[in-house]
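note to self — DONT lose this again. spent like an hour looking for the file last time. sequence + predicted structure for the chain T wanted, 414 res
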Amino acid sequence: MTKYFFRFYLLFILAACQGNTVPQYRVHPSDSKITPSSEIFYSEILPKLAGKKVMLVTNPSGIGSSPSRILSEFEKYNVRLEHLIGLEHGFLGLEEEFSPTPVTMDSTFSRPLYHIYKVKDSELRDLLSEVDVVLFDVQDVGMRCYTYVSVMKRLLDGISGLKSEMILLDHIHIAMHLPPMGEKMDPKHLNFAGEFPSLLISGMTLGESANFYAKEYLGGKAKVTVVPVRGYKRGMYFEETGLPWFTPSPNLPMVESARHYLSLVMLEGVNVSVGRGTQAPFVYFGAPWMTEPANLATKLQTYGNKAYYFTPVFFKPTFGPHKGKICSGLKMNLVTPDYDPIELSYELIRNLKELYPKDFKWNKGSQNHWADQLWGNDHFRNSINDSIPYKKFHETFIKEELAEKSKIKPYLLY
């Protein structure tokens, strides 16, 4: 009797434990079955570059996370580091502002650091002609307005027709589950945050984008070798991969910020803070005039099929719009990534404009509205001004999205 009682008790305990299993939100890196491109580079690619001259484009989201390893491994294989290319936020990914000068001296590598947005095309081409390899390794977010893809395009333009080759270490980003979304860039709104010829959400990794651009726009005249991530299947969320998130820029310090960036970046086109200079950039947004933010949160509950919700918050940005002022606003909370980020962008700004008609303003530069430069044309802004429902707005460019999906399909690696 005791034996049977013990067995029954053991089964009861096991069942109870299984019924209260703690949900696993992310895969631990030690359990990841994915091999990052950086590890493949060091073990398989770098030894083949012996004696080569290299221009390095990276930051802490790539192999730049360990400058000492770069130095030791390059020395081991007699790879000559000639130049560094500075991205928007600098080599360490810490800078909020663009560099005022085209070239500075990097203290870590004792090499010139060229800030590509300040370097003329002809000067860049001269620099590229001096090297055998352009090594490109940074984390991306899958959006045209995230300027690292613009940097990649300029480098591909620069090596087109030269003997120099780009080796690009690919990364999985947070928008891998999304197809191409949005519209193309109207040339009159062209800017550094919109140079790459994709829709706003590209539907591609940087490696896929490089192959796509080199073939479709440069006729194969730019030599590109993409080192893919191994073991990844398209559709897996970033959190499922077990890959750590290495901060690519000051305002995307965590996966949550990067995920919310997809829908909140369009807020940079209006007079609110997106939390730059706070502990939660692209998670918080608000303004001193945004009183009773709970009303906006209530309106936003009707969208997204409960994929997200918003809670009131106060914050004081140390950088960007409303610097040093107490802002009331909202915090975005994600339940699932399965929602339309363009719809959220559109409805958020449309409702913001309706709730605060006297305070709401579209930000404008010397020539164009910032929202137009982000979206690619004035269609997004004008449709909101005309109170057009999102569904009707989306119907005007859905054919463009479907055409782009077919166009990029041959270049997808995962």
